[in-house]
Amino acid sequence: MEYVVIFEEGENSCSAYVPDLPGCIAAGNSIEEVWTLIAEAIAFHIEGLREDEEVVPSSSSLPVQIDPGTLSALITVQV
Prior knowledge:
Layout: E1 2-9, E2 14-17, E3 25-28, H1 31-51, E4 71-76
Antiparallel strand pairs: 1-2, 1-4, 2-3
């Protein structure tokens, strides 16, 4: 599965969230660290939805509007 991830870089930390998976977030000291953490968070989030027999949202085909200087990426996870 592939999801859009929005990365935000602050003065002392970075964070990421997945618009299609509300509550699926990660934070760390660098984009590289957050990239790894958000990929793990997506897999964990989807696993939890499946265990609870809830619907796993599909990746949105709608464009995501982000602020200038904010990084977005598609992340593929195997679950």
